[in-house]
Structures are given as structure tokens and as C-alpha cells.
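User: Fold this; C-alpha cells only.

Assistant: Input:
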Amino acid sequence: MPTRVHEFAWPDRVVVGTIGVPGSRTFYLQVRTGQQLLSIALEKQQSAQLAEKIDEILDQLSTLEGNPFSVPASTPIELVDNDQLETVQEQFRTGAMTLGWDPTTAQVVIEAYPIADVDAEDDGSFEEDGAEVPEMLLVRMPVGTARAFAKRTREVVGAGRPACPLCGYPVDPEGHVCTLPEV
């Protein structure tokens, strides 16, 4: 059965945002082109690593002689997006992700796949009647949009619970019992 690809080649908007309060937030990668809107759930660590790796790719590309892909050193002000997520209807929870670069279009490419539900009795085949179609998200974004995406994602990840200055563990709104290591 072929994979259903949710493709966004030049998205109007691509952001990471959250729903919930720090300590119990759900992270979403949300992408929109025109009326087509898709949201997938991510782990906080996946979001952080995605932003870090996008910046690494862009930083490497900007060091090429003459910066042939016009990679901005910082986020272009016109691409800053601090708006809330749009209506979220989770398409899937992300398992594996890949990140790449397409030099023919000068775009960062993100592929996201759902967490695989492996059943003990499943032989890996799909039945024609009622079986779920495998799917993936494919997002291609230009370098300025990618830089803005990475910046916003780092800010969203960093907006969680503050760390305890003594033990480094997160401090909950209800309080914190510090567990200092024994010396």
C-alpha cells in the first residue's frame, strides 16, 4: 500500500508550538499552505534537536564562498512568527524524522513519520479493508523560513519550567523538593 505523503513545498507557515502548561505541554509541528493545515505531535527533545540541526545546516551553508544560497546569519524580521498555533487536530505522533538539504531549490527538507505501532501478531502487511494507510509529512522550507523556524522552536522549548539553581531539575508551579547529590 503506498504511503500518503502530506507535502508542503513552499509553506505559508511552519512553526513549533505547544498546548498546555509547562511541565505537561504537548509540542506540535504545524504547517500550513493556503487552507491546507496539518499538525503533528513531537517530543520536546525532538523539537530542540530539530532546531539545533537546522541551524547547523544553515551555518555550514553560509560559510560557502560567496554564500550562494543567501543564508541569513539571523532571523529576518519579516519572518518572525510569534502567533499561537492555529486549530490543532493531531494527524499523528512523530516517531522518526529526517532532515536534509535540497540544493536545487535551496530548501531545508524535513520528513516526519508516525510512531510505528508494532503488534506482536502483526506480520507487517496491510489489509485492504480497514487498514490504516502509512503516512508521512514532507516539508520544504527556504533558508529564511528555516532560520525563523529554528529560532522560534528554541524559544518555545526554552519557555518551559525553570531549572532549580541547586540541583538543575525542573521546578513545578506547585513547588519543588530539591534532591541535591550527596557529597
